[in-house]
Automatic annotation (TrEMBL):
Protein name, UniProt field: Membrane protein insertase YidC
Subcellular compartments: Cell membrane; Membrane
Gene Ontology annotations for the cellular component aspect, listed alphabetically: plasma membrane
GO biological process, alphabetically ordered: protein insertion into membrane; protein transport
UniProt lineage: Bacteria, Bacillati, Actinomycetota, Actinomycetes, Glycomycetales
Transmembrane portions of the chain: 20-39, 90-110, 140-166, 195-217
Amino acid sequence: MYYLLSVVLTIADALRPLFAASATAAAIVVFTIAVRLLLHPLSRAAVRGEKTRQRLAPKMAELKRRHGDDRQRLVDATGELYRTEGSTPLTGCLPMLLQLPVFFVMYRLFTTDSISGAANPLLDDTLAGTPLGQHLSETLAAFGLASVQTLVFGVLLVALAAVALWTYRRTRRGMADSPNPPEGPAAAVARVMPLLSFGTLIVAAIVPLAAGIYLLATTTWTVTERAWLQGRSAS
């Protein structure tokens, strides 16, 4: 994690002539975009996997109808179907799983107070006078509700809410357009899943401002990237 810290600090130093004390906040956004660009091939693979599952959904429904009482035969038939298509059931899931460790490390980078036994310098800078290492509750206690510092958190939460709403609507639309909607317990889970996008608001309210900026950058990238990739695959 120390090496990632060095990269972010180098970016911040390069941006300081333009952003002054807010250079670290800008560097977090630039660094997040750079990492997401590196992970873009995995995102493309995930979308291709989703398209494959959607295309095979009618055949999968038929296999479940024929072999629903024999789990092993269903597993074997599913594997054979995907092999025939030159794919696997994990094609859409594996890329996302591979990205999770990267996201975890980046999140830790922007939330931990110390790295390698020293204070995390990323949390020393400010954005519009709000320390990047400060939480919303601390900002309210230190500056009050009617302050520029609290407004920074307010703008962040509004932006996250807008991204979450866009994600929610796209997810609901995708579920409505599915040729084989889930049934039974899976349907109940599917109804709840789109609401999880609003969880970023809760997280941003309890983590340091630096982590909130990272959340906004990465979630905005995610929904924009998926909209673009799904639009390209549909055309």
